[in-house]
UniProtKB/TrEMBL annotation:
<dbReference type="Pfam" id="PF26241">
    <property type="entry name" value="Cas_Csc1"/>
</dbReference>
<protein>
    <recommendedName>
        <fullName>CRISPR-associated protein Csc1</fullName>
    </recommendedName>
</protein>
<dbReference type="InterPro" id="IPR017576">
    <property type="entry name" value="CRISPR-assoc_prot_Csc1"/>
</dbReference>
Amino acid sequence: MMAALEVTLRTQGEIWFASREVGRLADTEPYFLNTALYYAFGFASGRYVDRLFEPTYLDDTDGVSEELYVTPATPSDSTGSGLANRITSTYNTSSDDYATINYSAQDDPDAKQNLPTYGRRRVLGHGNELTCYLLGRGLSTSELESRVPGYIRLGKKRGKARVETEPLDVSQDTGEFDLGHPIGAYDTDLTPVGNLVTKRMRPTPLVMQASYDGAYVELGPTNLDGKNGVQLPADATFLKTKR
């Protein structure tokens, strides 16, 4: 038994994290990796105090990785019009070091220097819409929906996003298929056979499009009118090839 949901995330304020840094510009690209979504949905939790500064994704999701699979979230349509609001700002601030050494006037190494901290930041603002898909293995649709919170928080400043879900029908088949939604590069054992497009992201790259040959699931509403639904590898598991 497998249940599936289409999950829509609507930003309720600014969400910021550095997807890429170009010079003094820190840019938030419109992609929420599943490395973040597992924690945001409450499916996993990490250490409150991190003294090791090493990723613990595998350990944190060990109990749910086989049961729940969350795809990365992307703009709600291929044209990107789901992105209604992006905000660019310039900042000029003092250092945010946890401790500042107070030198005497004679010994201060920065006494003759002006060292401002400045740059530009582009973030996702209010009203943006992104979509991801949630698969529940061995769960009914109602059980899966009960696991999803109404709101989540994302990014460095814990920006808020509203969560809306829509149940989907699930069918399974084997053969050639085209990936219907981006997945993490390490989330399937299948090897692409063509049409591969990837996007470099941290901490894991995205497979934006690809053709595969193997077992797959097809997700869609009850009446597809002859159209294909969203096709994903049947073995899709968070960081599968790293386990």
